[in-house]
Amino acid sequence: MTDLLTAEVGRQGESVGSPDAVSFANVEYTWPGSSPFTLAIADFTLARGEKLLLLGPSGSGKSTFLSLLAGIVVPDKGEIDVLGTDMAQLSGAARDRFRVEHFGIIFQMFNLLPYGTQIDNVLLPLHFSRTRRDRARAEGALDDVAARLLAKLGIDKAVIATARTANLSVGQQQRVAAARALIGSPQIIVADEPTSALDRNTEGAFLNLLFAQSTSAGASVIMVSHDESLARYFDRVVRLDEIAAATRGALS
Ligand SMILES: Nc1ncnc2c1ncn2[C@@H]1O[C@H](COP(=O)(O)OP(=O)(O)OP(=O)(O)O)[C@@H](O)[C@H]1O
């Protein structure tokens, strides 16, 4: 129901009508090289507002899948539709703009700026996306919005005010990375094994905080992992080998 409502109301800069945030149709992509790796996905959808866990063993193509979904690479065949836009129709520069407008990405290694403050790190996407900057500004002064988001994700106010990003624990870095993905309410949150360095309790607490924020923003979340025990936190679990064929070797 929430998905349908979100689809009908829509948001600034976004096509309305489809209940899906992302759809793949007959997609095929090959990494070039002496031992080319090909990922073929006949059919995949991510609904608006859905929290989806994509499972697969190491080397099965999970990061390749996310690179396709976020338009970092474009398919050799087939179509990827994101929020009503055919990604292959955009130029490389337009895809980069589209990504920062509509995606919040939490990388496996977090990719934080060590010499920036936590607030600097959280505000980074707003330098590249006017839509997200305007949405964040609607909630107050940007530094305050970033600090509130960090606090909601479980970083102590004293730590926000004083600790250098380079000195944060892994769990704290993960929360800064999540706040950076969520600020300005992008429609799709992508996370590439962001909990792999955490213990079980911290992992569950982090996912609950992340989902509280993504749900209140109406965002879809897709997270890739090889850890099946995370399934209970998600609306749906998809195994990559059930939706994709991965092959290695010379192209036909
Ligand atoms: N940037 C790249 N350039 C060339 N080939 C690549 C690149 N990234 C991935 N590949 C190829 O795709 C295969 C699948 O890698 P991918 O990172 O998508 O798997 P994964 O399931 O995310 O693995 P892991 O869980 O270990 O991160 C690799 O074995 C490699 O052959």
From TrEMBL:
CDD domains in the record: ABC_MJ0796_LolCDE_FtsE
Database matches in Pfam families: ABC_tran (PF00005)
GO cellular component, one term: plasma membrane
Signal sequence extent: none
Keywords per UniProt: ATP-binding, Nucleotide-binding, Transport
SUPFAM superfamilies in the record: P-loop containing nucleoside triphosphate hydrolases
Organism of this sequence: Hyphomicrobium denitrificans 1NES1
GO-annotated molecular function: ATP binding; ATP hydrolysis activity; transmembrane transporter activity
Protein name listed in UniProt: ABC transporter
Sequence ranges assigned to domain ABC transporter in this UniProt record: 22-251
